[in-house]
Specification:
single chain; alpha+beta
Length: 122
Amino acid sequence: MKRISIVLLVAASTSVATMSTSYAHTSFDGAWSVAITTDKGDCEPTRQLSISIQDGSVQHVGDSTLSIHGQVHGNGQVRVHLTNGDRSANGFGQLSSSSGTGMWRGHGMANSCVGHWSAMRH
């Protein structure tokens, strides 16, 4: 019984350590430009954003009315949530060392939109 407890404790410690470092410094950290394009719906046709990734955390650089929160995993998978007044959107996709692409879905002001995004590293 004591041996099983030790094994479970080691396994749990490893899981917690992995979870707490999953957003530590990533190879994707730095400045990025993101082009957001609407494919369907009555939203802004395109928008260019500057973002910063620091320790895997995605943050907007610029207009304070726009809020962006998200995470980049070590394998480049990214998920973000954007809000601007009563409008919001969720995006997901994949980054490589110098670029990335993905999809997004948003809603607000009685309509919804879908589209895609592309990113380039500075």
